[in-house]
Amino acid sequence: MNSNEIINKAKLWIKAPFDSETQNEIRELLNSDSKDLTDRFYKDLEFGTGGMRGVMGAGTNRINKYTLGKNTQGLSNYLLKTFTGKQPKVAIAYDCRHNSKFFGQSVANVFSANEIQVYLFEDLRATPELSYAVRELGCDAGIVLTASHNPPEYNGYKVYFNDGGQIIPPQDGEIVDEINKVNFEDIKFESNPSLIHIIGEEIDQKFAKEAVANATFKDTKHRDQLKIVFTSLHGTSITMVPKTLELAGFTDVHIVEEQREPNGDFPTVASPNPEEPAALKMATDLADRIGADIVIGTDPDCDRLGIAVRDLDNKLVLLNGNQTFAILVDALLKKWQKEGRIDGRQFVGSTIVSTPMIIKLASSYGVKTKVGLTGFKWIAKMIREAEGKEEFIGGGEESFGFMVGDFVRDKDAVSSTLLACEIAAQAKNNGSSVYAELLELYKKHGFYKEHLISVVKKGVEGAREIEQMMIDMRNSPVTEIHGEKVNFLFDYQTSVCKNLITGEETVIDLPKSNVLIYQTTEGTRMAARPSGTEPKIKFYFSVHTALDDTKDAKKVEAELDQKIQRIIKEFKLN
Known about the structure:
single chain; alpha/beta; Alpha-D-Glucose-1,6-Bisphosphate, Chain A, domain 3; 4 domains; eight-stranded antiparallel sheet; 17 helices; 21% strand; Phospho-sugar mutase; isomerase; phosphoprotein
């Protein structure tokens, strides 16, 4: 889009139907010849792997009342066409971010103006509780206003379907088609208050009970003796995690008070992302002062968690997402095995960029692993397609998300936090630790080590650079990684897996996605994919080797880390 087209597009926003505040914001940008104008209008916000997410402000490439209203009007039109002969129902939740409550009410107004029943949470709530509420209330769709762990200037809009999972093909494409038909003047903002129902405590209680039922073990003792440090990182988890832990019997819980209060500025952290060690520093500092056994922090919308546990030297170490995934899924598999519930019809869910260790681990219990694209909507799809035929035990991905059972069909830091504490309590009762249990898994299945690098490329030029990087890797694949021959190139954009040694090609039976994975003869893997929600390209590395004795764990891990760093240098990514 050239500069004249951008200016003409922007000028539409300085007149009706846009309000005076919006008109003035754009008029100032036009008058000052601001470069920011291009970024606001060069494209429309689109749905990615996590819905629609962007910087707040006026413009088509921003989160605001009108872009959200347009999406909601399009979704309303879709629901009215899809669910004929009934009055559609929608549940809405929102997080702690700036404007989230206002956006939540605005979205509710549009739905109600379209004669759709709305169930709106009374105040901020965890994203997984919205997934639960959709099915519990028999809704046809759900919305969460959140931007997860993005910086404070971001907000977002996640759409869920009637199964409690995020929208997937063909629904997403059909909804986008309806949205594209909507002009801003078509949006119905005048609410029908009689169709907006406020929900809260009753759903909270049911959700907490389900979490306890799914994430605890009957034989766990002395839960009150596990010392836990928890931080909500100024987010929504404060509304649900402490009460769920208490309901399960964990009473020695110490909350990081400086981070207890929900705050969209996230004042005590550079980024409210539990993947970042710095985000959990206040929690680990507190844990060291009081001698806590485990530290858990969640992201602002409470769908992901970071965990720190004591290593063999009693020092706190942060687990990465794949390690947490392995520990949690192993515990669930043990639970199902003890209860005599494994009969060959069960499965766990994983993603193409998560650790391959999960496949080996689940197989040792006689359980298969289904591997899908990045994003929990694909795991939710697995569950929906398996209903009545197979049972879902649990699932996760490397980016610190996990799902316990299928009472929630999105990643859930509430039940995952509870499960992690349950594992820690059992290990402590047995004179062991979470870390020691992890090393035993490595000893049994191989020591797998993963690493993620995100390369940020902002704006129009950044998007072009990311696109070119993917083209180069696709058209000119490397043939060796760390001296190991690359035998497979998985191209999820073309749905082709090519054997680079024999030239043989096979079809990948997954929806198309802009992801490339190189795999060597030794099992080393490198994946690349542009982020669906942020201006960055992500590179995932996975290496592994045998661990014969847990005493050698530090040495083996150091060797794997060094190997990953050499690969990163080889690809000139450092």
